[in-house]
Structure formats: C-alpha cells, structure tokens
C-alpha cells in the first residue's frame, strides 16, 4: 500500500500539527522555538494510509517508536484489524507529539506481503514449510541431545535490542537459569555494550544519569560521535527548537563527517577516526589547565583525580592536534565551551562506541561532567546513548549476558539472590567467568564447541563484521542454526529452522528508551498466519523441554506478558533499574522513567542528584576493567580503590588503532546510518517512501580525495579492504580528507542472491573482526581501505 507523502491532519486541536509538509524532504519539520527552562511546545505528527482520515479509524492503540532508541510515544491507528497509520502522543514526556520520519511510514512493514507466516525447516538443503510441532520438535530434540552429550556450553543464544522486556527476561531465565549456559548475548554487543561498560567503569553500574529534559535547560550540548539529527530525529527537533529560541545553547560536535549536527554546531571537531581518546585527553587537559574544575564536587564525590590529572597533563593541544588532525585552536575553543558551560549536557554514541578504544573514550566524557560537577541537575548530565529501541531492556534483564537486574556476576551474593528468585541452585547459574560476548559466541561456533545457536530479532549475516567469515560460520553443517524473525532475512537463509515471529503492534510488552522512560506497547492487531510472539515461542520451548525449578515446578513460572512483567518487577526490586512501582495499567497513561517504586510512583527524572552512586562494592554491577587491556579487576582491588562507592575518574593513554591507513589502503573507512533506513532494512526497505528515499548504497568521499583519485559524483566505485570489496555510488563532500563513509544498511535479501554468498554490497564485507577490549563491542568504524572507479562503471 502506498501512502501519501505528506503529513496528515489539519484540524486544530489547540496545538501545532505541522500539516502537509513533505516529511521525506523535511524530516525535522517546522520549528516550535522555546527558551531555557521552558516547556517544549507540543507538535503532533501523524500519518494515515492514503484516503483515510481520523474518523475512519476504529481504535488507537498506545505504543512507542521502535526504529531508534528515542522512545517517542505514539498510537497505532487500527481499522478492520489492520494497522493503517500512526499518531504521536501529545502528552508523552519524550516527544510531545512529534514522530521520526521512519515511524510515520515504517508501520507498513507489518503489513508487508512477504512476512514469515509459518515455520520453515531445512529438508534436503532447502527451507520448506513445516508445522510448529515439527519445527519445535527439531529444536527440542537437538537441545536435549546436545545437553546430554556436551552440556549447556554447546548451546548459545544471540538476541536483540528490539524485543520487549518480558521477552528478554524470559530468555535470560531460560539460558542462564534453566539451561545454565554462559553463551547468551544480544546484538546490543554491537550497539551499546560500550555505553553499559562506560557507565559501569565510572558509576559502578549501568543506568543513564541524564534525562531528555536536560535539553530544555542546557547552555552547552556536546555530541561525541553522535549524529542525533539522523539517528534520533525527534531529540534533534528538541535541540533545533532550543537553537531557534531565546538564549540558545552552544553545540559542540565531534564527528569526522559534516553531519547536520556539525553544520549547526558552534564548534565542530572532525578528528581522524579512531583518535577519540587523544582528543578527549586534550579537552580534559585544557579543562584542568584552566582550573575549570569543580574541586569541591571532585573531592566529595569521586576517586581518581590525581591519576587523571597526571595523565592528561601529557596531552597539550599541540600534541593532540597532531594525532587527531585537528587545529589546536579548535581544541582550545571546544575545551572552553565545555569548561565555561554552566549547564553541560554531553551525549555519546557510535562514533565513540564503535571506534578504537571505545570504552576508554566514552569514559573520558563521563570525566568531563564529573570534573565540572555537572551531574544530576537540570541541564547537567551525560547520555551514554542507546541505539536500539529496547537495548536498555536487553541489558537490564541480562539478555546481553550480564546478570539480570544489573547484578554483578562476580559477586556471589548477587548470584545467590537471583537463584533464590528463580528457585534454582546458584551453581546452575554460570558465573565462573564473565558472560560470553557475541564475538566469542561466533568464535565458538566457528571452532565447533558451540553446536546450536538460536538467533532472535537480529540479522548477523549483514550486521556483524567480516561477513564472508560470518556466512561460513553460520552455514557450517555441524552448527544447528535457529532463526526467529518476522522476515526471511539473509541470516534466515542459512538456518536449519526458521520460526515466524510476531512484531511490535502484534504483541504486548514494555520497553525502555535511552533516558530510562518505560512505555507499554499494546497489541493492536493479530500477527499474520501462524506467527507468534517471541515470548510465546520461548515459553513453549521451556514447556517442551520440561524445565523445572528446585521444587519441581515448571520454570519459568510465568505464562504471558503481564505475568512475565510482574516477575520482572520482583527481579528488579531493590536494584538500580527498579520497576516495582510500575504496572501495565499505569503505563497505559504514558511513559515513566525508572527507578519507579511504590515510594516513588512518579519515577525518577535524573540519577545521582545527591552525588551518591550505585558504586558501593556490595551493590555495584561490576568491579571494572583495565581500560587498555580489558582485564577485569578483582573484588578486593575495587574495594580498596573505591570503598565508599564514589564515582571513578579513570584515565587512559591513547593507543593507535590496530589498522591504520597504509600505502595500499590509504583511507580510514567508517560506516554508519542515514535517516531514512533502519539497520538491515527489513522494515524500512519494505516501506515505499523510505525505500525510495535512499534506494541504494553510496560512499562519501571528500572533494580533495575525489579529485586525487579521479572519482566523479554518482559513478560506481569499488572500496576494498583486506576482507573484501564493495561497490557503491560516489557522493562527493561531507567528510574530512582521508576518510570514506559507507552506510551499513544494504544487504542482499532484495537482490537475486538473498544469502549474499557473492556479496559486494554490505559494508560489513569490509570491516574487521576486532573489538574493544573492555566492552567487546566490534569496531565498525576503524578500518583501512582503498577506493577506485569500478570497471565499466556508468555514471
Ligand atoms: N535513521 C536511523 N536511525 C537510527 C538507526 C538506524 O539504523 N537508522 N539505528 C539506531 C541504532 S541501533 C543506533 S546504535 C544509533 C546510532 O546512532 P549514531 O551513533 O548517531 O549513528 P552512526 O551513523 O552509526 O554514527 C555516528 C557518527 O559517528 C561518526 N564517526 C565515525 N567514526 C568516528 C570516530 O572515530 N570518531 C568520532 N568522533 N566520530 C566517528 C560518523 O561519521 C557518524 O556520523 O542510531 C539509532 N537510530
Ligand atoms: N558496519 C556496521 N555494522 C553495524 C553497525 C554500523 O554502524 N556499521 N551498527 C551495529 C549496530 S549499532 C546495530 S544495533 C546492529 C543492528 O543489526 P541487526 O540487529 O542485525 O539489524 P536489524 O535489521 O535491525 O535486525 C533485526 C531483525 O529483527 C527482526 N525483527 C523485528 N522485530 C522483531 C520481533 O518482534 N521479533 C523477532 N523475532 N524479530 C523481529 C527484523 O525483521 C530484523 O531481521 O548492526 C550493527 N552493525
Ligand atoms: Mo545499535
């Protein structure tokens, strides 16, 4: 169904409706300016299928956006049992009615004609239709055989940042509790493992300190490797409205590309990819050298100042300028913005998390706010951003490998607490070493120790680095691959069993955005065919496997979304991510920020308002790691260094990226996103407006480099790294010299080679199998590459 390309709805309801704009051409829409400390005005964005008006809609069902981490409150329009449109919620604390361009159109993917509707099993090499009984029978039989022959370590689960809280909690209980495997991780490893790691290193625990309302108060907003304009466009609308109002904030942008954020910035630093730690050390150097430090705050609430000051003393702007390829004056200007700010909000995302020394760099941003004493007050804080809509829940529930409820796997008391909650023997919950991270899970599959891998709501055959290797790992005969998805993805093409999943809008559950706002997403329509909610699939698996607790009762003990949520509330009670004051009923009224307890029913806008942290040795989620090697600290070390649970200022030397440009591969290659596409395009590629807005891949090249390599706008080029070759159209400009940018959205499902066996399109053909030593997040933004005109490339 093709929908009309403009905004919808012209009736006045007492708020701005930003009618009839071309949302593709103007994704951020009209400005509603406001000043510091004022309330962000409401503007409601909506879109209905061609020919429909609001009177035609049968029901509006509350949910929130799922094509980024912003958590914009919205409603699904339902007519005749189908989703026919969306409307932003004027009363939602996150978006005040606005919607991202992908959310205005992307719901059409639910209605796509090529949804998976029945299970598929591989027979004679081909995927063929099967019943649920047959498909689940195969999964259960293989699980039981592997458990008997090899034990729990033969089974692994690789999940997502796009399911619901109840689903992750259930998967964590099954994997860590019922089965007892350590091999459970999410694609959050590729996404916000570094956010979690950086928060743990500094504050002893995951959990976002700041709130989106800090945008309303800040006088300086600094964005580190974060193209918020394209990746959280509603948050950018909020920033743009501050910029258009009285006393606008100053913006600092740190990004090698000329993004919309860079163009709006007061100061734009475009460092060479992979040099973030050197740059941050230079900024910290200046802040300390100019005495912009809040020494009272530092003395009372932190440990580690002397070591940090000593280390960054060696990073004067001239030295940093040399490493990063940025003028020393720009570094001084940027430092002055940070140093003189009265209300400083910093945000961090993939330009740091997926680049060299990811955690070390992200931690230095926390250090800026700590040194300046700018935390827990209106306009002051850090957003170590999430990317995916429900990544926060993956982490909280422990489906990223961590222990449920931000518990500490290295603290026996925490493991015992979880075992009691689940009524299982503590020894059954693996905690002999840190949880297996995704890159290691794939390594175990590669070398044959892992024999069954259950992939849910993620598409590793496009999204993991070094795809030729990933395809060969996933297509091995000895690996039993289960893929649970709504579409026949590149990964599904390689599976032994494919399980058809219901999506957002077709099932009920809660999820939590990047500023801890929990939203309820109610079921609006039936899933297509025999597709089932992921929750139901896992509970069905648990029953078929006959998992039992210590008393012989079925485990997990819950049976549907709401009972899973009630169980999760008990698991979260007393932990930083406390949901005990929430209920489905309450969430139907709108989003609430955790922690939310019976004593604090309104939720919590900012963490750490009293300068107290979740970092006490008995309470913290992690004992920390060495920022250079990633080696975990011993509990005693942590206790000695931070007995009172203060915030930790951790310093790190700059280390050169593992792969740097050379004569053969003279460019630094980075990868990322465009506003119109989401990830591997399973949804946005099936949405006509979005598909057509960015139909094919491209490579960004600076003007100087284009001239040097004789490349012209629009021609087909070949980008090469030691891992492979990709062909993409040249786009000149928008990037610093010496750097190439490729979007990573374009895989193979819509080509004639759906598994991508001869792949030359996906950016990850080119990326390296390499990760940050602390967070284990793959480095999608550090590789060396060459570019040349493709033979016979027509313009
Ligand atoms: N439109 C859209 N929005 C999305 C998504 C999507 O697929 N499409 N995905 C969501 C998800 S899961 C995520 S994780 C977020 C990601 O959101 P972002 O992190 O904002 O997006 P990216 O494009 O991956 O990377 C951000 C920027 O990092 C810069 N960069 C690259 N290397 C370096 C470096 O070494 N140093 C610095 N300082 N910067 C560097 C790039 O030029 C790029 O502009 O977006 C979310 N929102
Ligand atoms: N080169 C490069 N690679 C990258 C990145 C980069 O910047 N550069 N970014 C990385 C990041 S930050 C991320 S988050 C990953 C994203 O990578 P992926 O997670 O692989 O990307 P998606 O396309 O979002 O895959 C999600 C899958 O879940 C399915 N799905 C959606 N809803 C449901 C549901 O309710 N149930 C089930 N079972 N399935 C569902 C979708 O159809 C889709 O196939 O990519 C990473 N890879
Ligand atoms: Mo992500």
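^ structure tokens above, recovered residues below v
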């Amino acid at each position: 169904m093709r929908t009309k390309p403009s905004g919808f709805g012209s009736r006045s309801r007492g708020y701005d409706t930003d009618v009839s704009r071309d949302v593709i051409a103007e994704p951020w829409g009209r400005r509603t300016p406001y000043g510091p400390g004022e309330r962000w005005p409401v503007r409601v964005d909506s879109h209905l299928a061609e020919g429909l008006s609001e009177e035609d809609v049968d029901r509006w069902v509350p949910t929130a956006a799922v094509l980024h981490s912003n958590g914009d409150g919205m409603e699904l329009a339902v007519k005749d049992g189908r989703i026919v449109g969306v409307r932003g919620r004027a009363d939602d604390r996150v978006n005040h009615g606005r919607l991202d361009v992908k959310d205005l159109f992307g719901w059409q993917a639910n209605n796509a004609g090529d949804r998976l509707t029945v299970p598929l099993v591989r027979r004679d090499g081909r995927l063929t239709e099967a019943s649920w009984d047959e498909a689940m029978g195969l999964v259960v039989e293989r699980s039981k055989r592997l458990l008997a022959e090899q034990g729990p370590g033969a089974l692994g689960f690789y999940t997502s940042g796009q399911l619901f809280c109840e689903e992750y909690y259930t998967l964590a209980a099954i994997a860590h509790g019922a089965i007892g495997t350590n091999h459970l991780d999410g694609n959050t490893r590729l996404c916000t493992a570094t956010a979690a790691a950086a928060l743990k290193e500094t504050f002893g625990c995951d959990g976002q300190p700041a709130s989106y309302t800090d945008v309303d108060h800040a006088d300086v907003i600094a964005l580190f490797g974060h193209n918020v304009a394209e990746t959280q466009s509603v948050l950018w609308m909020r920033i743009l409205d501050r910029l258009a109002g009285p006393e606008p904030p100053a913006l600092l942008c740190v990004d090698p590309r000329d993004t919309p954020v860079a163009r709006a910035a007061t100061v734009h630093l475009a460092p060479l990819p992979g040099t973030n730690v050197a740059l941050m050390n230079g900024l910290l150097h200046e802040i300390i050298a100019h005495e912009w430090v809040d020494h009272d705050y530092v003395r009372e609430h932190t440990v580690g100042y002397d070591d940090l000051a000593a280390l960054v003393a060696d990073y004067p702007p001239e030295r940093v300028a040399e490493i990063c390829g940025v003028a020393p004056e720009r570094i001084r200007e940027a430092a002055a913005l940070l140093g003189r700010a009265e209300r400083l909000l910093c945000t961090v995302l993939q330009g740091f998390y997926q680049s060299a020394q990811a955690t070390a760099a992200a931690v230095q941003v926390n250090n800026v706010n700590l040194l300046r004493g700018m935390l827990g007050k209106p306009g002051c804080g850090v957003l170590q951003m999430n990317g995916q809509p429900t990544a926060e829940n993956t982490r909280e529930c422990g489906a990223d490998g961590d222990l449920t409820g931000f518990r500490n796997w290295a603290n026996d008391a925490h493991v015992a607490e979880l075992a009691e909650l689940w009524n299982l023997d503590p020894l059954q919950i693996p905690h002999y070493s840190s949880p297996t991270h995704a890159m290691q899970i794939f390594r175990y599959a590669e070398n044959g120790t892992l024999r069954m891998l259950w992939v849910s709501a993620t598409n590793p055959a496009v999204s993991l680095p070094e795809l030729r290797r990933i395809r060969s790992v996933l297509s091995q005969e000895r690996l039993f691959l289960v893929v649970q998805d709504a579409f026949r993805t590149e990964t599904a093409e390689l599976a032994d069993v494919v399980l058809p999943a219901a999506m957002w809008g077709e099932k009920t559950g809660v999820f939590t955005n990047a500023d801890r706002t929990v939203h309820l997403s109610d079921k609006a329509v039936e899933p297509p065919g025999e597709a089932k909610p992921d929750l139901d699939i896992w509970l069905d698996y648990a029953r078929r496997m006959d998992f039992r607790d210590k008393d012989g009762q079925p485990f997990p003990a819950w049976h549907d979304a709401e009972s899973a949520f009630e169980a999760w509330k008990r698991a979260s009670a007393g932990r930083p991510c406390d949901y005990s004051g929430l209920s489905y009923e309450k969430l139907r009224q709108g989003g609430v920020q955790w922690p939310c307890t019976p004593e604090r029913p309104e939720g919590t806008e900012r963490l750490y308002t009293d300068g107290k942290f979740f970092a006490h040795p008995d309470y913290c989620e992690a004992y920390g790691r060495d920022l250079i090697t990633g080696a975990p600290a011993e509990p005693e070390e942590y206790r000695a260094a931070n007995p009172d649970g203060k915030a930790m200022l951790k310093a790190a030397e700059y280390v050169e990226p593992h792969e740097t440009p050379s004569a053969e591969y003279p460019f630094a290659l980075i990868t990322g996103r465009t506003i119109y596409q989401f990830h591997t395009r399973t949804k946005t590629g099936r949405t006509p407006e979005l598909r057509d807005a960015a139909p094919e891949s491209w490579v960004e090249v600076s003007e100087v480099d284009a001239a040097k390599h004789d490349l012209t706008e629009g021609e087909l080029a070949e980008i090469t790294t030691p891992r492979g070759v990709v062909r993409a159209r040249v786009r000149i400009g928008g990037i610093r010299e010496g750097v190439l940018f490729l979007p990573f959205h374009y895989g193979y499902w819509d080509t004639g080679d759906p598994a991508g066996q001869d792949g030359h399109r996906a950016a990850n053909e080119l990326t390296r199998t390499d990760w940050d030593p602390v967070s284990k997040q793959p480095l999608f933004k550090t590789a060396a590459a060459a570019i040349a005109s493709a033979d016979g490339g027509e313009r």
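The domain at 1-111 is CATH 3.30.200 (Phosphorylase Kinase; domain 1).
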